[in-house]
Amino acid sequence: MAQFINRREDVVTEAIDGVLALSGGALTRLDGYPHIRVVLRSDWDKSKVAIVSGGGSGHEPAHVGFVGKGMLTAAVCGDVFASPSVDAVLAGILAVTGPAGCLLVVKNYTGDRLNFGLAAERARAFGLNVSMVIVGDDIALPDLPQARGVAGTLFVHKIAGALAEKGADLDAVTSAARHAIARTHSIGMSLDTCRVPGSPKEDRIPEGKAELGLGIHGEAGVEQIDFAGARASIATMVERLAVVMGEGPHVALINNLGGASVVEMSVLAHDLLGSSIGAKITHAIGPAPLMTSLDMQGFSISVLPADAAELALLKDPVPIAAWPGVSEIRPLAIAALPDGLTPITPMASGHAPTRAFVINCCDVLIAAEQDLNALDAKSGDGDTGSTLAGAARALISAIDRLPLSDHTQLLRAIGLELSQTMGGSSGVLLAIFFAAAGDGASSGLPMREALRAGLARMQEIGGARIGDRTMVDALAPALEALGQNVAAAAAAAREGANFTATLTRAKAGRAAYINARQLQGHVDPGAEAVARLFEHLAR
C-alpha cells in the first residue's frame, strides 16, 4: 500500500520541519540536518534541569511531540526505528544544559543505551552535570535480562519534566524518575505489523490472530494468540499485568500504537475499566497515540501505582497538544430521558404463529448480515447488513413485550422499536413504514393495503422512487404482486433487486455519491434484503 511520503531519506527531516512550522514558534531545531536532528524549547534559558529524551523516529508524537514547558526540554531524533548518533545526542545535551544539569531519559534498547551513554560521558568531560535513567517497563518478555522501554516512558517524561519545571535539583529529578521507572509496567498487543516507510511490509501476523508483546519497532512478540475481540484481548493482557501490579490505586496509560481507530480505543478503555484490575485504576491517560509504532494496528497498556506527589505531577497542566492530560475515573453519569421520549411499552400479548413468523423473518436478516455488508461496501459504507441484523436482534429480544395477537398494534410497536434501536436513515424510514402501516390497518385497510400505505408514506418522506436504486425497487413490486400470492411477491422482489444492479446512478442514499463504475453490476443491499425476506416467506 502506498504511503504519503516523498523520499524515504527525507521522511524524518520533513516530518520534524512540519511539526516546527505548526508549533507557533514554540519549538526550535538545531542546525545539522540530516545527521543532527534535535528539537528543543524555544523559550529555554538553561536556568532549570533539562530533560532530554529521544531515540528512533516512528513513535510520534514521542518524542518531539512532548517537547515543551513541563515535559521534555529537547528530543533527539534518529532515523525510523534507529538510535540517533552520539554526536546528535551530545549536540542536544550541550544545547540545553546549564548549571542545573541535565537528565537523559533513555529507553532500554542497546543502541539508545550506548549512544546516549557515550554522549553523557563526553558531556561530563565538558564539565556538565549529566545523569541518565533507563526505562525498562515492558513485561511481555519475562525471560529477558533487560526489559524493553516502551510507552511507560511517558510517565517518566511527565513526572521528571513537571518536577524540573518547579525548580527541583538534578538529584531530586533523577530520584523521582527512577522511583517511577521501578514501578511502571507495560504490555502491548497488535493485529498487524507496521509499515516502515520505503520498505515492504512484513505480514507476520495471520488473519484471526493477535500478537502479544510485540515491540514498538515491530519486533516479534512473545506469542500469537487467537483473536476473540476487544474484551478477550484486554483479559489476556490484564492477566499478565495483574501479576506485577501491587495493591492500591493505579494510573493507566492507554496507548494507541498508531493504527487503531478512536472507536476501537474507546472500546478497549471500556473493557480495561471493566476488567479484573479495573477497580485499581483510579486515573487514566488517554486513550491516545502517545508512543506509536508508525501505523501498527495495536495498543498498549502501562500502569503506575502513582503516589500523591506523582499524581500531582502527572496532573500538572502543560501547553503540549499531544499530551491528553489525566482523567479521574468516575461512575458513568446517566440522565433520564426528557419527557415525551421515555419508551412507551405496548400491552404485550401472545400469539405463537405470529411470534414464530417475526423471529423467522429476523433470522433471515441476521443470516444475511455479512453478505449485505459486502454488497454495501461496494456502494455505501459497508454497514447495511449490520444495521438490519442489529434491528432484527433487537426485535427478537423484545418479542415477548410486543402485542403479537393484535397485528395493527404490532406494526406500530415494531415501528417504535426500530425508531429506538435502529440507526441511520434506513432505521428512520423503516420506522415510518411500519408506523404508517399500523395506522392504515387501524383505519380498516387489509394488511396488503396497509403495507402499501406504509410504503407510500416512506416514499413521501424519504423521497425514493422506483429506479432510484434503493430498497423501494424491490419492496414496491413485491407489495404490488402480493395480491396474487407470496410466491409472486418473492419473484417480483427478486426481479426488482436484480434490476438495481443495472442502475449506474443512485438518486437516494449513500450510493448517490458513488461513481457509475463502482455501482455497475452490484445489487443494492437494501433491495437484496427485501428480496431475501420475501423469498424466505415464499418457501
UniProtKB/TrEMBL annotation:
Q: Which SMART domains match?
A: Dak2
Enzyme nomenclature, EC number: 2.7.1.121
Which part of the chain is the DhaL domain? 352-539
The UniProt GO MF terms for this protein read: phosphoenolpyruvate-glycerone phosphotransferase activity
The DhaK domain is annotated at 7-323
Question: One Pfam annotation, family name?
Answer: Dak2
Uppermost EC category: transferase
Q: Which PANTHER family match?
A: TRIOKINASE/FMN CYCLASE, TRIOKINASE_FMN CYCLASE
Q: Which organism is it from?
A: Shinella curvata
Q: Which domain of life is it from?
A: Bacteria
Quote the PROSITE patterns the UniProt record gives: DHAK, DHAL
Keyword line? ATP-binding, Kinase, Nucleotide-binding, Transferase
Q: Does the keyword Nucleotide-binding apply?
A: yes
What protein name does the entry list? Answer: Dihydroxyacetone kinase subunit DhaK
- What InterPro entries has UniProt attached to this entry? DhaK_dom (IPR004006), DhaL_dom (IPR004007), DhaL_dom_sf (IPR036117), Dihydroxyacetone_Kinase (IPR050861)
